Amino acid sequence: MDSALEPQRIVNAHGQAAGTRIDLDDVCRYFTVGGATVKALDQVNLHVDESAFVVVLGASGSGKTTLLNMIGALDNPTSGTVRLAGVELTSASRAERTRIRRHTVSFIFQSFNLFPGLTARENVQFGADVAGRDEPGRVAAEVLAQVGLGERADHFAHQLSGGEQQRVAIARALATGNPILLADEPTGELDFRTGVQILELLRDQARAGRTVIVVTHNREISRAADRVIELSSGHIVGDGPPEGGRAELADLHW
Ligand SMILES: Nc1ncnc2c1ncn2[C@@H]1O[C@H](COP(=O)(O)OP(=O)(O)OP(=O)(O)O)[C@@H](O)[C@H]1O
Description:
Layout: E1 22-33, E2 36-48, E3 53-58, H1 64-71, E4 79-84, E5 87-88, H2 94-104, E6 105-108, H3 120-130, H4 136-146, H5 162-175, E7 180-184, H6 192-207, E8 211-216, H7 219-222, E9 227-232, E10 235-240
Parallel strand pairs: 3-8, 3-9, 6-7, 7-8
Antiparallel strand pairs: 1-2, 1-4, 4-5, 9-10
The structure holds adenosine-5'-triphosphate (ATP).
Residues 31, 33, 38, 40, 58, 60-66, 217 line the site of adenosine-5'-triphosphate (ATP).
Pfam family, one: ABC_tran
Keywords: ATP-binding, Nucleotide-binding, Transport
GO cellular component, one term: membrane protein complex
């Protein structure tokens, strides 16, 4: 029996191990509204092939969410290619895109996005169900315990604090078994202490072998990353370890 806590092995349509590579080559994403064109992403090249805690840093409007949507196969580039786990999404069929999305990436949002009518356990089990995992109930119980909420499994979202709700959302993402976690401003609605705890939980997932990509406008958070990808006006203007070396989460302040 596999452990619910391990990222599941990715296989391609032929049942071969496909890895967790993310490859964006010359990606542009333009939006045209009322005759004006916004270059949300412009000639972006990005390659991630390691399990790491990656922060995408940039000001509002720099293209962070657009980039995350590309990696998560939720949007298509205007030009360029996106490959996820070796599959070229830009030319893949709709069914293939859905399959690769379902078994590769999981999203975590700023506002948690829990189903209000479901308990913590049911929200988490949903993740395991969608991914088609065996024994979704066992998986849900295991990941809820992992995020420290084993005792709150029967609580609804409104009965949980913001930090607890974000833990449930992370547990739901982990329950899929998918090896890539995409988190859009996951601490944006949390106080500093709770935010650091959530970052710690996400960083631990990278240490356990997942690729964790956190989008933020908060430069302080990027100090704790293994790799910082800085966006400005749709361009990658920096890509490497944090300036001055990686800081401990305990040393962050904002
Ligand atoms: N569907 C859309 N239609 C038109 N313009 C869009 C659309 N989505 C994004 N944009 C524009 O693309 C640019 C990048 O947006 P994006 O949401 O990726 O930035 P962001 O860095 O995530 O910003 P924020 O931190 O404020 O969420 C912005 O100028 C935005 O207005």
